L-carnitine dehydratase/bile acid-inducible protein F
Amino acid sequence: GLIDRADVVVENFAPGVIDRLGFGHDAVRARRPGIVYASISGFGQDGPSRNRTAYDLILQGIGGTMGITGQADGPPTKHGLPIADMAAGMFTAFAVASALVRRERTGEGSYIDASLLAGQVSLLTYQLGIFLATTQIPARMGNAHPSIAPYDTFATADGYINLAVGNDAIWQRFCAALRRGDLATDLRFTTNALRVGALGPLYGEIVPELRQRTTADLIALFDAAAVPSGPILGMDEVCHEPQVAQQALLRDLAHPTVGPIRLAGFPYRLDGKPLPIRRTPPTLGEHTDEVLAELGLAP
């Protein structure tokens, strides 16, 4: 059967369901001791919330993401993508890869318990660190950073620009690019810590400056000065971004029934080359005969 030749089993039923179906970890391991077995659930395989129904939105709220996302005077806001679903899958992939290396070295299989909740808590990074170190609850700050300034989205003459003035040397270059040498020597803003503590006055100085120029002009200005900046692109603009094309992040394929399609490519290269996409998205039941043939069964 499939289990007898499998390296990895991944399941994402509610806790307990796969055991009732006869394919839980203990049953599979008894048949294939070296198996790497991964269970992905909303809250984990044990604990008081293990049986709660989980969706991405629910876990973004419970896992803390929404509590720190959104404008300060607005409601809690979910991430624009299903980050709880995606993170759980990616962390599971990391764990599976680690378990396969361990098996290669020791011959032992592994049981992996991954969850949407665990992924969200792990992504809280410095925001969680702030709370654990100070007991201060991080607040929603829009696109600003709690410990770097200016690091935010700003209005321009024709749209918006992201700015990341990540240290004092960049601040000096930022001021020079805007021809505001007075800000570079202003004692309210000479260090990052001072700027973070004086956001009101700081924004009062730089917001009018940025509103006078177009986004493209500002990016050209800041690129020349080595000040990190960038536009906010719509989906159509992302698809026409030259760097996206250079990195082969979008791929054109011929689908056997739909015809030409465009898909997202791999987000990494191996040995400097884009990885080939060997299969197109399957039609309903497309691989049934292939799987049955592997098992020696008739279609």
